[in-house]
Amino acid sequence: MSEVKPEEISHPAMEQLQGFEYCIDSNPPWGEAIILGFQHYILALGTAVMIPAVLVPMMGGNDGDRVRVVQTLLFVTGINTLLQSLFGTRLPTVIGGSYAFVIPVMAIVQDSSLAAISDDHERFLQSMRAIQGALIVSSSIQIILGYSQLWGIFSRFFSPLGMAPVVALLGFGLFERGFPVVGRCVEVGLPMLILFVVLSQYLKNVQIREIPILERFSLFICIALVWAYAQILTSGGAYNHSTEVTQINCRTDRANLISSAPWIKIPYPLQWGAPTFSAGQSFGMVSAVLVSLIESTASYSAAARLASATPPPAHILSRGIGWQGIGILLCGLFGTGTGSTVSVENVGLLGSTRIGSRRVIQICAGFMIFFSMLGKFGALFASIPFTIFAAVYCVLFGLVAAVGLSFLQFTNMNSMRNLFIVGVSIFLGLSVPEYFFRYSMAAQRGPAHTKAGWFNDYINTIFSSPPTVGLMVAVFLDNTLEVKDAGRDRGMPWWVPFRSFKGDSRNEEFYSLPFNLNRFFPPS
Questions:
Q1: Residue 124's closest CA among 51, 64, 75, 76?
Q2: Could you give the count of Cα atoms lying within 13 Å of 338 in the half-sphere of its Cβ?
């Protein structure tokens, strides 16, 4: 038996992932790009519908109010996605609603002064105005940290070793939205999961006119087939005598979105009335803004890798966070009921389709704005059972997590120091939020329960976010534990050139502003 060569055992580190036909600044033909953009739009509907479905009834809103909030959230998502792809990081990311804001929003909704309002619709309006005020004030945190370059300065403490667990937890930390939700309607969710894996992976080489149609459009095909299958089950009376929970998760006619939606309705600023402002509520909302900032930072790193771009330099990262702060400000002005962050599932779809084109995401933003104004058509797509989205999340969140782990190729994983940092940060990033979640489910409140409501929101929100806990642990350990001679083991020789805009010649190609705006806003 011949001796095994070292190069046959290990693989060389590679800056770009293999198999991507279109990267950040290359574009597929218009026909393909439009279908791919629509596919991203369909995927973004899951979060856009689910967050209002949870919050609006608690606020006292009816089905009509829920539809308007969904429309508004999609409209603002489209605007924020366009702004971010044009003037922010310029990465192919969808800037959608964020679950990080649910805890402080629920705290506002449960405020005694609002809960005392007897009229449901009036309580909904007053709750929405209070949420708007808190979002408007707290958005200043990201705007300041972004445009002052403070977040870019802080990002200099990052390394491939420190960011790998954070990006991995971005995907792993969302496991509650995967198979636990699929299991609520396994006869719909499981076929969707199996079909999506088969079409996107096992049959990905099937081509029509030299286009790998099943790999690129598998999400669209699978959702159409399983949605039709769910409609047949619903129409056939399969759930007529099922429990309420089963009907909510399985039926295609339980959302009441289509009947409640107007034909045409254009969202506009202050449509719910003038925002109201409270210092305590605004301070509590700041915690969600910080979580959104950290989760988005991890998402930008994953998106850059899936778009075959260099890691975003500190200046570009700060610019993106600044525009994201403006996005949260728009959420407050329009009244979306939540703030914004990078959509993790859409980042995962870049990897599933192997297309990281910026133009595709901009087309997706156009669909969001268009269908949010045409209420009936948007509501039709928004009535897809959430179980179908959860099945897709099982694959896409896993992809994002794997992208995070791929940063470890630039580090020395034979170092016990590195193994300790990665292992502890991932474990605590999963374990601490799980403790907060289980405690909250059992006690109907978070572990932090003092007389200072804003402090409770801070602790309960920050420690319920896996990427946030992971970043605090990983970055602290990475910058304090045996740092002196660990630069090479941490992956810094590969990472350092990307810190500044001029550190790599490709940065200008990927991140320069359009319309020659770099003349007026030169990157540092």
A1: 64
A2: 29
Structure tokens at 189: 């969710």
What are the residues facing 211 on neighbouring strands? 208
488: number of Cβ within 10 Å: 12
The Cα 191–Cα 127 span in angstroms is 40
Alpha-carbon gap, residue 308 to 325, rounded angstroms? 26
Q: What is the DSSP letter of 331?
A: H
Q: How many residues does the chain have?
A: 524
Write down the domain spans for the chain.
30-410
Angle, helices 344-353/213-235, rounded to nearest 10 degrees: 120
Residues 281, 88: Cα–Cα separation, whole Å: 28
Residue 5 has which token pair? 């060569």
Q: How far apart are CA 393 and CA 399, in angstroms?
A: 9
Partners of 340 in the beta sheet? 97
- The rounded distance, in Å, linking the Cα atoms of 341 and 357 is 20
Q: Among candidates 369, 382, 378, which has minimal Cα distance to 78?
A: 369
pTM score, two decimals? 0.94
The Cα–Cα gap between 145 and 123 comes to: 34
The 10s digit of each residue's pLDDT in 412-471 is 999 999 999 999 999 999 999 999 999 988 888 889 888 888 888 889 999 999 999 999
DSSP state of 340: E
Closest by CA position to 331, among listed 516, 76, 85: 76
User: At 394, is the secondary structure helix, strand, or coil?
Assistant: helix
